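Service request form, structural biology core

Requester: graduate student, group of Dr. S.
Request type: structure prediction, single chain
Budget code: on file
Notes: please return the result as structure tokens.

Sequence provided:
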Amino acid sequence: MKVYVTEDYKAMSRKAANILSAQMILKPNSVLGLATGSSPVGMYHQLIDWYKKGDLDFSEIKTVNLDEYVGLEPTHEQSYRHFMQENLFDHVNINPANTNVPDGLAADPQAECQWYNQVIRSMGGIDIQVLGIGHNGHIGFNEPGQAFEQETHVVDLTERTIQANARFFASADEVPRQAMTMGIKSIMMARKILLVISGEEKAEIVKQAFTGPITPLVPASILQLHPYVTLVGDKAALSKLMEK
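Core staff response, request fulfilled:
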């Protein structure tokens, strides 16, 4: 695992954008696995800036997102499809047909998950998967449990995750209780993984995930087994990892 310790969120975002843009330049038709949340926003905005300067081309890029809430329409301001449109897709020359996010309004979420697995396989797999990490160690919406989940599946969100996401909604009651998410197998099959983390509040879980045992109780710990992980974090988030 490569680890880059940056001074702050801005520096973390720029470093992560460097890594993702290098993948795009080396392979213009790359399949990018993308994530939502506060951690990658700065990275996406840096990519937009470089695109506008003529340094990046998204015309052949394909994307698959990690997850989506069950029950939210794509235009809902808290849906992950809306997040991606607002923070990346609407600002670059990517072909909308090449952007993939699970459909939160699918009549049969389980069937939607199976379709999504086929989409990933049909593109030849993911070249680089962007990840964040939750306070409980979840990646995507793979919550702590008794086993590592396999491919894309429907998951019941834990109360901690619901409370963590409540800040984006009018109240915790409005946060969906289920999501569709790529499973651990889907994530681990990506050729490369780019993990972006910021904030002192993530320091303890980062330490557990990368210096503790590999256990489904800390889903991110499985990343210890991936052959090509790059961790980019600010010094606050990586402070306890560096101590170790």
